[in-house]
Every structure is written in structure tokens, then in C-alpha cells.
Amino acid sequence: MKTLMGVKAEGHNFVDLLAALARQASNTHWLTLTVGVLATAFLFWVRKGLKPLLMRWGIGPKVADIITKAGPVAAIAITTSLAWGLGWREQGMKIVGAIPQGLPPLTLPTWDAALWRELAVPALLISVVGFVESVSVGQTLAAKRRQRIEPDQELVALGASNLGAAFTGGFPVTGGFARSVVNFDAGAQTPAAGVFTAVGILLATLLLTPALYFLPQATLAATIIVAVLSLVDFGVLKRTWFYSKPDFVAVAATLLVTLAVGVETGLLVGVGVSLALHLWRTSRPHIATVGLVAGTEHFRNVLRHPVRVSPALLSLRVDESLYFANARSLEDRVNDAAAAQPALRHVVLQCSAINNIDASALESLETIEHRLRDAGIALHLSEVKGPVMDRLRTTEFLRHLSGQVFLTHFQAVAALTPDVLNGTATATPTTLDREPSHA
User: Fold this and answer.
1) How far apart are CA 263 and CA 3, in angstroms?
2) Helix (H, G, I), strand (E, B), or coil: what is residue 312?
3) How many Å is the Cα radius of gyration of the chain?
4) How many beta carbons lie within 10 A of that of residue 92, not counting itself?
5) Which domains does the chain have, with CATH numbers?
6) What is the reported pLDDT for 434?
7) If DSSP codes are grouped into helix, strand and coil, which group holds residue 3?
8) Mean pLDDT in consecutive groups of 10 residues from the start of the chain, 439 residues
9) Fewest CB within a 10 Å sphere: which of 17, 56, 96, 218?
10) pLDDT in tens, 252-263
């Protein structure tokens, strides 16, 4: 925007830039703004309306697409010619100006230990932000073509590029958002586009820099604005709000802090909020009391389906991996059930959704087993996943388990309470189950 207005506006975040633009509004260079607005409007029209127009004129789809992709080149050529012919530079318009010809010389990095220590933390932040930006824009653009990227390969490519930049006096290298979008809009399909771009930059650096002297900076700004606006998705806030309020908090916090403070802080806040929300959600796992759906071997939440249960058996499905933050919730649920059901003789934990049990959760399971055994109740497990079972076999828990480990939950119910299968059991849920539930 500052380039479109032809003013100087500096700031490290959105708020500072917006305030600077407001202060400089009275100094707007109207010729620059006019050229920038017209170039932006032209590029928007090229994107939406040129191809259909060319096809109505009888031009084939492929040729029309190529001409449409060349819209930014046409805008650059036209405005550069006008700036040279009409003397826009003398009228105060900012142009690209003189660009040094030739390639940068090969230079060795400075081997200064004190300088390296000073730059260590900033370099780490730059590398993290650069990698996140590269992967983000890569995934965004790949999704538009139903493709996928390999983050590991992106990291290798960024590392190699930065090593090359270190020996040519270059800036840190990353996958730039604006430039990637411009490249995408130009029709790039494969990594060969990067090779062609490099060759083009090489030729332009050696041969074409004089021709770019009169290129208005406002035209470059218009090119980037049009390309980037195509990826701005304000609808994500509305969609996330209606789908998940915690996820909306993470999205909104990242967005607002990035705009108000900066990218690095926004990234850190976004990661921190996401981790905090993950801990909050997983510390309150959904634990459903399940029963047998008549005529099947399937078990569902007693609050959602008409199912068969037995007062002597409590079947609990834990819909979360067990770790230090949520292990106490399972203890409390089992203890409350044991106290509320005097006829209870068996507790079966359906572990189909448990992908991991950490050391703290293992201690909680051992505590549950001891308390149930003292109360004359056996603890059983069913549908334990292979990796989880492999780790449990290395502990004393299974050797001291008062109950059994069943391959399926149906086998557990059939062995422990056969009356559930023949329909003589009750289908009334206990008061402990009256809470918001899943399937």
C-alpha cells in the first residue's frame, strides 16, 4: 500500500504500518496512486475476464490461458514504456532505478566466533520462521492442485539454498509467499519452473537491467497485491468459529498477535496456544459407558443408543490416549462407578482409541487395579493395540492384573456376563453416564 501511495511508511507490524499510512495519507503521490490502482484493476480483470473474452474471439483455450498468464508481463511492459516516454520519474514517481549488472562475487563467510554467538538466536528464529513459511505456502499451493509436499525435502532444499547464499553474500533464503503465488499464477507446474526462473534472472541480471530502469514500483506492488489477495481466506475465521471454539481461539490469537506484534511472536503464541488447548482438551477425555447393540457385536454409548448392559459389568470406552494430564480423570470415573453400582463385579476398559499409555497413566492403572481388587472387582482390558500391548508386557501391570486381556470387547462381555447376549440384561444407563456424549 505504501508503494501504491508513493509514500514512506515504516513499521514492524500491521498496527505500526497502518498508523504510518494514516499519517502519510496527505502526502500521497496521486500519479503513483493512479498508476498503481489502474495496474491493480487491469490485473484483476486479466485474471477474471481476459480468458473468456479471448475464447469468445475464437482463440483456443491453451493459447488464451498463456496470454492470460502473461498479464503481469504486459502491465510491466506498458507502465515501463509510459514511465520512460512521459517522464514519470521527473514528476516524482518512484521507479526501480539502476540495478547493478552481473553476478555477485563468491565470498567466504566471516569466521568470527563472537559474531556467531551474537547471531545464534536470531538465526534460529529466522530458520524456524523461514521453514514454517515455506511449508505453509507450499501446502497451500499444493492443495489447490490436489498435490502434497514433503517437508523433509523442503528442509533439505532450504538448507542447500542457504549454504549457497552464504558463499555469495545473499540474504537468508526461504519460500517467499508473494513470489511463490506470482509464480503459481504464471502457470508453474513442476520444479523446472525454478530452473527457468533462475535462468531468466541470470539473463536479466546480465542483459536486461537497463530495460528495468523505468519500471514503476507501483506496478510491482500491484502484481504482488493481486497475487496474494487470491489466497487470503477470511472465511476460515467463520468456519472455525462454528466448528470448534478452541481452534478459533488458536487461529485468532495467531492472527492478531502476528498483525499486532510480528511474525516471530505470532508464531510462538500460536504454537503456545495450540499446545495449551491440546493439553486442556486431552486432560478431559471423553469416557463413554458402552453397551451391546442387540443382534450385533458392536458397542455404543448408552446415552445415544438402545443397548444391553449388566449391573455386574461396567464397560468404559476411553476416547483418548492416556498420559499424565488425564490419568486422574479415568481414576475418578472408575471410582465413582464402583461406589454407585453395588452389584458391580467386572470393569472392562475398551482400549480401541488408546494409542499410548505413559508412565504416569500406567501408575494410575495400577492404582485403579489395586482399588478394584480390594473391593472385589476385577479389572479387564479389551481391544488393546499392538504397540500399547508391547509396552505393557514389559511391566508388572499385566502380571498382577486381576482380570484378563480380551482380543475384542464382545469376547469380554460374552465371557464375563453372558446374560447380556441373550437379552436378559437391562438397558437402563446409570446416573453416572448423564453427560454430553459421543457415539
Assistant:
1) 21
2) coil
3) 32
4) 11
5) 1-97+213-232 (no CATH), 108-205 (no CATH), 235-282 (no CATH), 287-433 (3.30.750.24)
6) 39
7) helix
8) 88 86 90 93 88 86 83 90 91 87 81 88 86 84 81 89 86 79 76 84 83 90 85 84 90 90 84 90 89 90 90 93 89 88 93 93 93 93 94 92 94 92 58 44
9) 56
10) 999 999 888 887
Residue 136 has a CB neighbour count (10 Å cut-off) of: 12
Q: How is residue 275 written as a grid cell?
A: 499446545
State the DSSP H helix or E strand holding residue 313, giving kind and residue range, or none if neither: strand 313-318
Looking at residue 213, the DSSP 8-state letter turns out to be T
Residues in the chain, overall count? 439
Handedness of CA 288, 291, 295, 298 (dihedral sign): positive
Give residue 308's Cα distance to chain centre.
42
Could you tell me whether strands 313-318 and 287-293 are parallel, antiparallel, or unpaired per DSSP bridges? antiparallel
Closest CA to 404 of 355, 349, 341: 349
Query: What is the distance in angstroms between the CA of the first residue and the CA of the last residue of the chain?
Result: 51
Residues in Cβ contact with 353 at an 8 Å cutoff, skipping those fewer than 6 apart? 317, 318, 319, 320, 321
Three-state SS at 301: strand
The position carrying cell 497485491 is 225
Query: What nine digits make up the cell of 225?
Result: 497485491
Cell of 292: 451391546
Q: How far is CA 41 from CA 48, 66, 75, 140, 219, in A?
A: 11, 20, 11, 25, 11
Torsion of CA 390, 396, 398, 400, to 10 degrees: 180
d(CA 368, CA 378): 10
How does DSSP assign 347-402, residue by residue? EEEE-TT---B-HHHHHHHHHHHHHHHHTT-EEEEES--HHHHHHHTTSSHHHH-S
**β-strand pairing of 299-301 with 287-293:** antiparallel
Question: What cell does 425 get?
Answer: 440384561
The pLDDT of residue 359: 92
Quote the CA–CA distance of 167 and 196 in Å, as a whole number. 22
Task: State the pLDDT at residue 423.
Answer: 64
pLDDT, tens digit (0-9, with 9 covering 90-100), for 88-115: 989 989 998 888 877 778 888 888 888 8
